[in-house]
Each structure stands twice: as C-alpha cells, then as structure tokens.
Specification:
By secondary structure, the chain is of the alpha/beta class. The chain has a single domain, classed as 2-Layer Sandwich (Transcription Regulator spoIIAA), CATH 3.30.750.24. About 35% of the residues lie in helices and about 35% in strands. The protein has a 6-stranded mixed beta sheet with strand order 1-2-3-4-5-6. Helix 2 links the parallel strand 4 and strand 5. It is globular and about 30 Å long. The relative contact order is 0.16.
C-alpha cells in the first residue's frame, strides 16, 4: 500500500498530469494522453514548477501516454537538464508502453534519460 502526499491533477489539451510527493520528497508525475506541440511547453513548465518546491528526485511515468511528438521529447530533455542543474535525478517510467520504448530506442533517449521499468 502506498501513501500519496499532496496529490495534484492538471488537465492540458489531451493530457492529464497527476503529481504527488512521496514521503522521501520524491515528486512523482503520472501522465496520460497525448504530449504534443499544443501542450508540451505547459507540461514541462508544470513538471518543473511542481518539482522545484521539493528536494527529492523526480519520477515521470509515461506508461499512460498514447502519443508524443518531438516537442514532447524536447520537453522531457529540458526537464532532465533542469533536474541535473538542481542535483536531482529524473527517472522516466515507460512500463509496458512498447511504442514509447521503440521511440526512445530509435531516438537514443533511452541512453540520455534514466529509463526505468517501474515507479
């Protein structure tokens, strides 16, 4: 049983972002829907804002993402860069999302981002 602290939800064009902070200060994001040019910048800004208030690492669960375009991939890289600047680790969860696993492998993002199997 996991305990959720400070759960927050944001809906952007075709994208739902749930955020919560765990007891260790790790900020967890669960994204569902599409990440594209219509919402990627706002999504990245939200992830950066939510995680800036905490001192722990950041976990971004993309297993519920149906589609991501190049602006969404760029947003993840931007969040990664900010995490590094703040001495945090960004972990990206792809779960059983085979399309995203293939995309990350093709683009080389599985070597740039810390991709993990589960939260």
């Amino acid at each position: 049983m996991s305990i959720l602290f400070n759960e927050r939800t944001l809906i952007l064009n075709h994208l739902e972002i749930q955020a919560y902070t765990g007891p260790s200060g790790t900020v967890h994001f669960c994204l569902r829907g599409d990440i594209d040019v219509s919402n990627a910048k706002a999504a990245a800004a939200r992830l950066l804002h939510e995680s800036s208030n905490e001192k722990g690492d950041v976990t971004c669960d993309l297993s519920g993402v149906d589609f991501i375009d190049s602006s969404g991939l760029r947003a993840l890289v931007d969040v990664q860069h900010e995490s590094i600047k703040n001495e945090r680790i960004l972990r990206v969860v792809l779960g059983d999302n085979h399309r995203l696993r293939r995309l990350f492998g093709t683009c080389g993002l599985d070597r740039v981002l810390s991709v993990v199997d589960h939260r």
